[in-house]
Amino acid sequence: MKGRWPMSTFDYIANSLNVKGNVIKKCIHSEQQIEFIMELNRAVVQCPNCHAKTDRIKDYRWQRIAIGSILHQQAFVRLHKRRYVCPCCGRTFFETVPFLQRYQRKSKDLQMQIMVSCFQKRSFTDIAADFHTSTTTVIRYFDRLHFPHPQHLPQVLAMDEFRGNAHGQKYQVSITDVEHNELIDILPRRDADWIIR
């Protein structure tokens, strides 16, 4: 079933993806998902190799990008992506997509939503179910997060080992602030050299 959406909705979707102009060409709406057909505006781009300017197109390819949920349905962008060719050095390269990192199939915003959900007290499996992705993907995004080490240590530290399976080790060590009942760090191993670090 093909759905008709007013153009203002297309503009809203394009603006939320940080894209200017009339780039959404069509919307395909089914019971399970919403898919927006998109083609970015043609532009003069700079070759990443020799920095010459070009607008010569070699070919196109379709890329499907998950952008989150709209009306409790999975939303995707099917992007008609250009591959440019440099007239000076002959190198080919794809156009840059403002809402997508290289080699990714999820928008920057969706990746950020998944990472923010990792701060809640929820399992990776629950987060994966909410965002219609795999648990492995959620864990991979969680591993990108950097947690700062404390600037100063508390008066009383408690160290306890527990059975786990991180980094191929049987036991890990938790370090907690006893006075404030806060977890400070989890060490992947219980060896003395890891604890001394």
From TrEMBL:
Domain Transposase IS204/IS1001/IS1096/IS1165 helix-turn-helix: 95-146
Pfam families to which the protein is assigned, alphabetical: HTH_Tnp_ISL3 (PF13542), Zn_ribbon_ISL3 (PF14690)
Record domain Transposase IS204/IS1001/IS1096/IS1165 zinc-finger: where: 44-89
InterPro entries assigned: Transpos_ISL3, Transposase_HTH, Transposase_Znf
Transmembrane domains' residue ranges: none
Protein name: Transposase
